[in-house]
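[step 3/7] inverse_fold.run input=structure_tokens len=253
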């Protein structure tokens, strides 16, 4: 049984980031054409595009501010000049900031997380779901976090933004399920990426000791779940929050 995304087009926001790059490569490996979204890092986006095109898949890069509706709609316009449709949308972009205690966290950090988690999800839905409805098919995949199930110190802005995102995705799953569009979230733990491999920071014993599998996950393991949820193998899964964190968090029933 293989994951086959041939003839489908996938958009990954934040595609030049540590996890985003691996998602793009994995979706392309499964046969999808890819749209590589970036905000500032055009060089990495171009390099990634060349890499994907060399595999025989189609790829385009597109710059946009996913916290701005006009920018997202302009991104949509550019994409539809090159592709007939977008079958898979992966909301991976998020604003980076310094984590502090609530009393010290600047209010603008909360607004930034709301914009990049909640409003990005709303804008992507407004931009790309209508065409999915016309095709009676589509995949909306949001990258959440294990942190949204935790209440640890300094997590407040990030957890608040991702909890808000969770609400949008669950409601959206109910609203558009009738059109055979699935809406799911993936919740990575503290994931090993190329940055860790470069800096030799893969091992984090204090964290790993709290993980039932006693290790950190990898960027490829996150991308594998993205590919699965994007595929027909997951056609009857919607409204799910899927932790990919070795069991560090476990949603209750």
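[step 3/7] decode complete -> sequence:
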């Amino acid at each position: 049984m293989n994951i086959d995304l041939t003839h489908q087009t996938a958009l990954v926001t934040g595609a030049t980031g540590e996890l985003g790059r691996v998602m793009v490569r994995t979706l392309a490996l499964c046969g999808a054409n890819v749209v590589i979204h970036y905000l500032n890092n055009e060089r990495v986006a171009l390099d990634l595009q060349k890499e994907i095109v060399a595999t025989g898949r189609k790829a385009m890069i597109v710059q946009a501010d996913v916290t701005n509706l006009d920018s997202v709609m302009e991104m949509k316009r550019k994409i539809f000049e090159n592709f007939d449709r977008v079958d898979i949308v992966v909301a991976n972009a998020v604003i980076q900031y310094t984590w502090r205690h609530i009393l010290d966290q600047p209010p603008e950090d909360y607004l930034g997380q709301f914009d990049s988690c909640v409003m990005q999800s709303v804008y992507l839905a407004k931009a790309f779901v209508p065409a999915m409805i016309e095709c009676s098919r589509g995949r909306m995949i949001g990258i959440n976090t294990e942190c949204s199930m935790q209440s640890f110190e300094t997590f407040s802005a990030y957890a608040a933004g991702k909890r808000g995102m969770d609400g949008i995705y669950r409601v959206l799953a109910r609203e558009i399920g009738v059109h055979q569009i699935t809406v799911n979230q993936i919740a990575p733990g503290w994931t090993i990426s190329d940055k860790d491999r470069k800096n030799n920071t893969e091992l984090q014993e204090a964290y790993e000791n709290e993980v039932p599998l006693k290790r950190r996950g990898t960027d490829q393991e996150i991308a594998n779940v993205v590919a699965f949820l994007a595929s027909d193998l997951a056609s009857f899964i919607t409204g799910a929050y899927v932790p990919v964190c070795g069991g560090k968090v476990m949603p209750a029933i």
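[step 4/7] annotate
The beta strands are 9-12, 33-38, 59-63, 88-91, 138-143, 181-188, 241-244.
The radius of gyration is 17 Å.
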